[in-house]
């Protein structure tokens, strides 16, 4: 998820430069806040209702009201959009602070251009600080523990903040991609910490839970491995995105968010439809996964067209009212 946070910070910073702060906030509330609330209020209970009806339990208005009453925060995959919205609002506050400190520029200093990639010393220092922070946070909030209302795992919070900040601070994605020697250092760090994890689990297979957090070597090794390996894999994704992000792919990108929002109900329906299929778990996962991707894009496209049509109707009605007045 750190890679997505890096991309989120990168594109949010570019959007903030193009728009006013007020316009950016309105846009983020519309694009991130509204879908987060809508999915929590409709999408999550829809998935729960589908499963409940399939199991033979009643589903009605009273159940839906009780479901809403029991909620204490965001539900489902939109924890990411809710978290990204909070980061974007923080970016606006930081940008406002910059405009106060740098009175000669409305938007503060622009990100510096650096085609040599990320500074290795800063990168290693960031990974070390994130790993130390993760280790201590996981003593109180082990991996898997979430906090309301964002349903965010504090175990990965420092990584999200660091990667979002990295994306927001660069002028192009090349600056977030480490050089080959730096990547080699990340690989060695990942292999070394991974070896510690492997040996610990090999000697005591029941110690898996220790990785989630606590005063132990496995928790420390996992914190380091997660950050080093996460950035190593993420940099490869960023490099591929930078290389293959053409105009045609950007057209597809417009449909990615609707597909993301509807993929859980689609997967739920596919899981129910294939429940009695006699096939191995790997084969069933492959079938549901492939069908889920295709189905999510189809349903997402239909939902997006319906939303645009509804917006057009509303705009048309508003235009008629203005003409009549």
UniProtKB/TrEMBL annotation:
Keywords: Membrane, Transmembrane, Transmembrane helix. GO terms for molecular function: acyltransferase activity, transferring groups other than amino-acyl groups. The chain crosses the membrane at residues 29-54, 74-94, 123-141, 184-201, 221-241, 253-273, 285-303. Residues 3-299 form the Acyltransferase domain. It holds the Pfam family Acyl_transf_3. This is Acyltransferase 3 domain-containing protein. It comes from Zasmidium cellare ATCC 36951.
